[in-house]
Amino acid sequence: MDVQVGETFKVPSSCPIVTVDGYVDPSGGDRFCLGQLSNVHRTEAIERARLCIGKGVQLECKGEGDVWVRCLSDQAVFVQSYYLDRKTGHMRGIGVHKICPKMYVKVCQLLLGSGLMTFVAYASSG
Asked: Which of 42, 59, 110, 126 sits at 20 to 30 Å (Cα–Cα) from 119?
């Protein structure tokens, strides 16, 4: 599942909320449907996963670039998030976080990420 499928979906800055779902019929610039993508690499297992995504997730950009996820699906979704790693005390990037149906969770804090990148750049310059 590490093969890019289709073009990058670009959301206009005037649209702070976007829905990503498993359906096939997009209806506007604020919704991205995974089912509409054709993919020669799509296996039966991937198709079942897409169907489980169902109503999907809603991504919301708030404040100074914070990203929040709302699980709209009847199934939990899993995200990789350095922000949640830090909040939960987990080692960065080695696991995923479960977001249960109806949960609304902050998964990214732009200012924290920006500060981390500045620190890493400074530390590596040596």
From this structure: 59
Contact criterion met (CB below 8 Å) for 113 and 73: no
Q: Per-residue pLDDT for the chain (126 aa), expressed as one digit of tens each? A: 566 666 777 777 788 999 988 887 776 778 888 877 776 667 788 778 777 888 999 999 998 889 999 999 999 999 999 899 989 888 888 889 999 999 999 999 887 655 555 555 566 665
CATH code for the domain defined by 17-124: 2.60.200.10
CA distance 48 to 19: 20
Full-model pTM: 0.74
Structure-token match 């899993």, residue found:
78
